[in-house]
Amino acid sequence: MVDYELVLIFSSKGEESNQKELTKKISQTIKSAKGSDIKVDVWGAKEFAYPIAKQTQGLYLQFNFSLEPKNIVDLEKKLKSYPEILRYLLIKKDKRKEK
Questions:
Q1: DSSP code at position 76
Q2: Per DSSP, what are the bridge partners of residue 11?
Q3: Most buried of 52, 68, 85, 93, CB within 10 angstroms?
Q4: Domains contained in the chain, CATH given
């Protein structure tokens, strides 16, 4: 298992309850890709430096989880299929300790 960090930007046009449903939906997507140790951190709504899909702000969320590298492609395909996600960044965490 490898540790990953996923940062998502959702459209901020939805209501708070809709955003909670989206958070659950993404968590379920990670679980369906056999991910584990899912931690969610809501960064809140922030203004963009430039418009994205004709929107000037979005809701930022950070997910930390563990997943087998072979399942990443399936996870990314599913993330691309959600129209509510404006942008996402998926990175592999480095386990080296900083001195």
A1: H
A2: 58
A3: 85
A4: 2-92 (3.30.70.60)
